[in-house]
Amino acid sequence: MHTSQDLRQAEAVRLDAVSKTYGRGDSQVTALRGLTMTFADGTFTAVMGPSGSGKSTFLHCAAGLVAPTSGKVTVGGTDLAGLDDTALTKLRRSRIGFIFQSFNLLPALTVMQNITLPLQLAGQRPDKTVIRDVVRRVGLGERLGHLPAQLSGGQQQRVAIARALVTRPAVVFADEPTGALDTRTAGAVLALLRESVDIAGQTLVMVTHDPVAASYADRVVFLADGAPAGELRRPTAEAVAARMTRLGAWDDETGRTSAPQHSGGRF
Length: 267
Ligand code: ADP
Ligand code: MG
Hints:
The protein is α/β, with parallel strands linked by helices.
């Protein structure tokens, strides 16, 4: 029998039979169909699937941003359904980080103000050591007084990563974090995300359609039509691309068929 403390150490996130249906009647769409999945502490998982397969809905449910229609989401041993809005917001701010494809920085705030914003929202006193460590890891020491518009895309995403890590969350969710970046910049951002798992012990769940990005993960889980469609452990870009070809019909958000790339990655 596990105590909740054991579970908290073993599983950062757990989904049990999670379903999500949007709308009603004729316009009803089922985005997730009874998804069960666990994400162990200190692991990096990539989530892949065709456009519309439910990847973003899955991330939003797992992060407590969207309530499932049925099923259960547990973060760090806490059942999200048992929390009222205030408690859920508090848990999200302290235990969960989120990284978006479009960075979502506040344009009027400096780099430092953007990074420390989650601490202010969570009512936590900024720990100078933690902030210094996060800033050093993302390599933005010289830019702390700059505004987001004065930074490149890769630098803006590094600010967003620092912002997601500064509360030292149990789990960080990233939805296509390298989708807006060129290959070289994406590589630097992925290396940073990998480091947050290997060095800081963070748990990372990343949606991507890029086999090279997926190859940075410990495991790739595939979604198709709101349900699991297999997984790969210790993925190489080649193995991921081969699996994608077998599953078929992989379009990215722009509607182009994404050509698998074979350079880079960990191998
Ligand atoms: P993916 O991220 O894999 O492209 P999504 O989770 O965004 O998939 O979408 C899964 C399905 O749910 C799609 O059919 C999409 O149109 C639908 N969907 C997503 N969000 C909403 C929403 N807010 N309202 C209605 N339908 C939605
Ligand atoms: Mg999506």
